[in-house]
Amino acid sequence: MPSDISPPFAAPTAEPASTLRLQFRRFRKNRLAMASVYLLTLIVLMCFFGPMFFPFTGEDADFDNIGAPVNLFSIHPFGTDDYGRDLFIRVLEGGQVSLTIGFLGALVAGGIGVLYGAAAGYVGGRLDGFMMRLVEVLYGFPYVILVILLSLLFGGGTVSLFAAIVFTLWLTPAVIVRAQAQSLAQREFIQAARAGGMTGGRIVLQHIVPNCVSVVIVYGSLLVPEVILSESFLSFLGIGVKEPQASWGNLIQVGTSAMSTDLRLLLLPGGLLATVLFCLNFIADGLRDAFDPNDR
Amino acid sequence: MSLLEARNLGVGYTIPGAGLFGAPRHLPIVHEVSLSLQPGRTLGVVGESGCGKSTLGRALLQLIPSSAGQVFWQGQDMAKIPNLRRRRSEMQIIFQDPIAALDPRMTLGKIVSRPLATFEPELSKAAARARAVEALQQVGLSADFADRYPHELSGGQAQRVGIARAIVGRPKMIICDEPVSALDVSIQAQVINLLMDLQESMGLALVFISHNLAVVRHISHEVMVMCLGRVVEKAPRSEFYARPLHPYSKALMDAVPEPDPRREKGRVGTALPGELPSVLNPPKGCVFATRCPLAAEMCHNSRPLLREVAPERHVACHFVEGA
Ligand SMILES: Nc1ncnc2c1ncn2[C@@H]1O[C@H](COP(=O)(O)OP(=O)(O)OP(=O)(O)O)[C@@H](O)[C@H]1O
Ligand SMILES: [Mg+2]
After folding, report:
1. Which of A255, B196, B230, B271 could link A266 by a cystine bridge, Cβ 3.0 to 4.6 Å?
2. Spatial contact of B93 and B31, defined as CB atoms under 8 Å apart
3. CB B310 within 8 A of CB B323
């Protein structure tokens, strides 16, 4: 029984647009960020599909071509290392490891952090206080010592590296999301959700987390380079990814020791890592500009 | 049996303690409120800004915990209703800030149909959406609003969506927390009339919270006046408007006739002279004593109790005799 006092409103005719969609539209206008997206996609595709076009893997030694120099028209376009392994393939395979750890690590660490922070911020009170004290304690834990402990526990290698990275990097997203969740929890649509009979868990997943998505996307995009960098750093120190498995970190480490005689061992993985980090930072910047609620 | 009944309800907020190690403190806001509401009736609640009307409204639905007293829903103590969550379809609420009450990330169709996922889980997605569209039409919004987002709405449209969400589960009662105070005067009447129409067609009981005495007069059967978290007067509508008894009610009434649309959104509280006591430091005596023209020594020292001075007329004032 539509009330006769109020004529039915007709909806505006333009395409409905969620803020999220508007924000991505804004992001696409950012040239530098979009160029970075394309370049990054290219590098990722190259790392994962490039090695398929070569008849050997990064672990196959070519004893006829040990320490071969750069020759773009030979079978080893960027030469081989001291064991006769193709450098280009090794850098691509190292990229697979570094990028996977980077994106997966950011995803897992970000996911844990977001859920933890959203729950703490929504629940509030004593439990929130306790959860945040725990985060502070974990913040104080020295990173490198943690990695060494974990590698003793898991026997070193990629698993303990990954665990260590996730273990330390979920803390900051948790703190950021918790602050956001705390202010969201006061908003009236959360009260409305409770009046609608939703459980706390559902409210966190369906109302709090989706409303943190801007912060999460922006922060998450900064998390990826951070993870890649810590992977490289730890592998460089020799606590991370182990030979013969390649990663950008341990390739750079090998490259630095041979720096005085053969610069290309350092330049190829180092250059690629730097390019990826630049791209990710430009993308993060673009996302922040597109999502920053202050300039709306 | 009343639909809703509150007995000596007290509500407060827990606030962080002072300093690093201060224990959390309880900040009492609403004190000893008793009321009862019959099916299909409207109780108007008036008072200045900050006197605890919204706090009371939320506590009546037990959306925030009460610190004293009880709330009964159809005779059952709400604190003891097993799985109260599932019965919330019977009691709904409309909020003061219509835009803030809608999740900005959801379409209106999703917002309105979401309660059905909890209350009537057997309903298919399509059926729930159909119900949402029906509710939107009931409040005067066309079906194509279902795919819009809250930021595309005007305040009046947003409040209609809030009403649609409240009625979609076919409730028995709606708490209306200043449903029109954020709206333009021209829209206010539309929303009020919509609520009255729905009340008639669905047999709804309403708790209508407002600082606007004229609006309350239009919609209520009974009026309750609050000052600093306490009920100072309770009376049937016509008797109350014919002759308010409490000096505070009279002061509110005198502050009303100002048909300036810009003031309409402001609060009556600003019009009353005198010092408003802080909730942090409530007065020992009458809550209105610091601003009351009649205040005497005893008003500052002893708090007048709410007593029945005439049939159905309750006043908390030392100076009001039986009328
Ligand atoms: N979450 C909270 N924590 C602490 N204090 C609060 C909280 N919410 C409200 N208060 C305090 O409770 C008191 C009453 O607030 P409430 O919102 O109930 O007032 P109101 O009568 O609805 O006012 P208005 O007309 O402005 O809506 C205010 O002094 C306010 O500062
Ligand atoms: Mg209020």
Report:
1. A255
2. no
3. yes
Beta carbons of B151 and A19 less than 8 Å apart: yes
- Looking at residue A158, which CATH number applies to its domain? 1.10.3720.10
Contact status, residue B266 vs residue B211, Cβ threshold 8 Å:
no
CB of A205 less than 8 A from some CB of B: no
pTM higher than 0.95: no
Which ligand number lies closest to the CA of residue B52? 1
Alpha helices (H) in chain A, listed in sequence order: 19-28, 31-49, 87-123, 125-139, 143-154, 157-169, 171-185, 188-195, 200-203, 209-211, 213-237, 248-257, 264-291
A137 touches chain B (CB under 8 A): no
Question: Is pLDDT above 60 for B260?
Answer: no
Phi-psi region of B273 (alpha: psi -120 to 50; beta: other; left: phi over 0): beta
Domain ranges for chain B, please list them.
245-255+277-323
Residue A278 three-state SS: helix
Q: CA A36 to CA A43: how far, in whole Å?
A: 10
Q: In angstroms, rounded to a whole number, what is the distance separating the alpha carbons of residues A225 and A220?
A: 9
Q: Residue A245 is part of which domain span?
A: 15-47+102-291
Residue A2 in any domain: the answer is no
Number of compact structural domains in chain A: 1
Q: Which of A108-117, A284-293, B38-47 has the lowest mean pLDDT?
A: A284-293
Q: Are A58 and A86 in contact (CB under 8 A)?
A: yes
- Kindly state whether residue A149 falls inside one of the protein's structural domains: yes
Which ipTM value was assigned to this complex?
A: 0.86
- Indicate the residue type of A14: A
